[in-house]
Amino acid sequence: MPKEQEILIALGSNLGSEIGHSAATLKAALAALHRRGLALRRCSRIYKTPCFPAGAGPDYANACAVLHSAETPAGVLDLLHATEAEFGRQRITRWGSRTLDLDLIGIGEIVLPDATTQAAWRALDVAEQAQRAPAELILPHPRLQDRAFVLVPLCDVAAGWRHPLLGRSVAEMCGALPAADRAAVVPLQDAAP
């Protein structure tokens, strides 16, 4: 039987859903993930963050969570996509507005598909990132180290997790971001359920 692993995810919404506003959608998504067998261990506060890219839509509600499961990485991704669909997510425009966005950030020390491919996706410039999406699961998420809207909430729940290739903790990666980027991620409320 596969061993349970710690799964890091990022949650975001800037359109809300049938459930309600974006923050309510994030809370409901956590409950839906639990129903699908992904056990919630910790959840960050919910933060208000500027839409990325700037001007592409309303500001986001973002959070991060630590889940546990014995699912394979591909199985976890399938569960995240099924939950997004449940909340009306449509994949029309890359980096467009969305009812719910669930990103698989990392699973323990797993690197997929391999260190060379992960590093190549990590090195893409922003213009290429906006145009290209990988055909396979890349872990850890290749833009994790660049995104305050992920690292700030991730510090709430997994500050000590170390990127298996970069060797830096979440707290160290967050601290390396420009102060203005970190300051733009503002808590909406205390920790989610």
TrEMBL record:
UniProt keywords, alphabetically: ATP-binding, Folate biosynthesis, Kinase, Nucleotide-binding, Transferase
EC number: 2.7.6.3
Domain (7,8-dihydro-6-hydroxymethylpterin-pyrophosphokinase) ranges: 94-105
Molecular function via GO: 2-amino-4-hydroxy-6-hydroxymethyldihydropteridine diphosphokinase activity; ATP binding; kinase activity
Keyword flag Ligase: no
GO BP annotations listed: folic acid biosynthetic process; tetrahydrofolate biosynthetic process
Top EC class, one word: transferase
Source organism: Salipiger marinus
Pathway of action: Cofactor biosynthesis; tetrahydrofolate biosynthesis; 2-amino-4-hydroxy-6-hydroxymethyl-7,8-dihydropteridine diphosphate from 7,8-dihydroneopterin triphosphate: step 4/4
Name of the featured protein: 2-amino-4-hydroxy-6-hydroxymethyldihydropteridine pyrophosphokinase
NCBIfam families xrefs: folK
A Pfam cross-reference name: HPPK
